[in-house]
Specification:
It comes from Sandaracinomonas limnophila. This is Response regulator. Keywords: Phosphoprotein, Two-component regulatory system. The modification 4-aspartylphosphate is found at residue 53. One of its GO terms (biological process) is phosphorelay signal transduction system. The protein has 522 residues and is of the alpha/beta class. It has 4 domains: 4-118, Response regulator (Rossmann fold, 3-Layer(aba) Sandwich), CATH 3.40.50.2300; 121-202; 212-421 and 510-520, Alkaline Phosphatase, subunit A; 422-502, no CATH class. Helix content is 44%, strand content 18%. It has 21 helices and 19 strands. The strands form 5 sheets. It has a 6-stranded mixed beta sheet. It has a 5-stranded parallel beta sheet with strand order 2-1-3-4-5, with helices on both faces. A 3-stranded mixed beta sheet has the order 14-12-17, covered by helices on one side. Strand 3, helix 3 and strand 4 (77-81) form a beta-alpha-beta unit. Helix 2 packs parallel to helix 3 (61-71) and helix 7 (149-167) runs antiparallel to helix 8.
Amino acid sequence: MNYSILWADDEIDLLKPLIIFLEGKGLQVKTANSGLDAIDAIQTESFDLIFLDENMPGMTGLEVLVEIKKQKPNLPVVMITKSEEEEIMEEAIGSKISDYLIKPINPSQLLLSIKKIMERKKLEEVHTNSNYRQEFAELSIQYQNKLTAQEWAEIYQKLVFWELEIDLTENKSMAPILQDQKQEANKQFAKFVEKEYENWLNQPDENSPILSHKIMRKHVFPHINDKSPLFFILIDNLRMDQWKILENLLSDYFKPEIENSYYSILPTTTAYARNSIFAGMMPSEIQKKYPEKWINDLGDSTDEEGFNHNEEFFLQEQLKRLKIQAKTSYHKIIHQYHEKALLDNFNNLLNNNLNVVVFNFVDMLSHARTDMSVIKQLSPDESAYRSLTASWFQHSALFEFLKKIYAKKGRVIITTDHGMIRVQNPVKIIGDKSTNTNLRYKHGKNLNYDNTNKIMVVKNPDAVFLPKINVSTSYVFSKEDSFLAYPNNYNHYVQHYKNTFQHGGISMEECIVPIVYLSSKK
């Protein structure tokens, strides 16, 4: 260690053995006999750390601390005191001290405090990299085995955990290895879904996952009661890793009572997955029961929300079908005036049994990243995209809304309809004018494609409860990080869409999504 330390104490001579110990560790220690001397020293010299006695004649340690923070707000200060009074501790913490030591102190305490402050990031990086190396082999073996849907969800959650841990390291030296491991896991996961998906729908057993059309019945409606309102918040297009970032920001306000995941149906898009959530039915079942309410995604339509105008109707129909009597409200937040209306109306929502709120910002952000170069530059990879999501959330109406729920000791379920993946590898496909525009899945009557290793083909939509536009309709789903590109203007198309976030296909990021029950900490 080669750090410069300033130690301010009116009895500094009595601390000589400790100073000699620190110097023996390679540290440079300058002393000051008073708070004023310490303030003078930081104006003329540069220090990495200050040890500051709390009880000195003249200016107290707390008064000196305030002055130090005015002049050097980022200079770490360790408060040293004989006092164990809670009030002094709270004032010191409120003044942004880096550590708090109580006399008598021993050499190991000092050394630990210095390492904790000065070398924390380096030590955490070494520890993180070492632990990931150990788990790397275990994970690689695990996803080569025959796994259940729940076991795949657990693998994905572990990969997300390591992604976020490595994100915190300075050099991110293990990030490329983790990325390779995720790609291989996604390859095996896509094979798993392709093999099992039809069985989940037609012959479900104890190993089948809960899918979109069952989450209200399984995870939401059982929590409705007459004692307190339940807020069901659906954040469109939210990945597991993004949720973990938001969960951390909410940790001062809510505690997770139940943390689960579920599988989005195919296609992993708003039009299919979210309508299924609120209807409690698969897409073809919705189309047959409510033909006037189902809108097919045909041709060049790119407005995903245009397919979801009937969510409130579907929700009410599901409640009636299940004979659930509840006073409900439904709100879709797209524009600022929606946000204002929601916040202004908050107190009235407390009179309902169930309040459903759909927030669309994250989905709009992913589309903006594709079409707007400035957003793309701000979020070149997953790490930056998570940071952008966190920045939005901290200043969002959603956060303000959740704080209001917290203040009223409310209950919240947060989920999403599907996730997304950053696409890299194009697969050529040919369709006709009625073929939809989504890059991760296509449906049509005359689909021609190459590289069948990167796609899942469904020639009988009835078998997976998907609508048939005509008798020869088939569906094609991209697997892993591939995307579907037309031969016309192929190079331009690929250049424009490569490295963008898309959804609709088969990947852990799109399919395995969070659903979490939170209670207020108030």
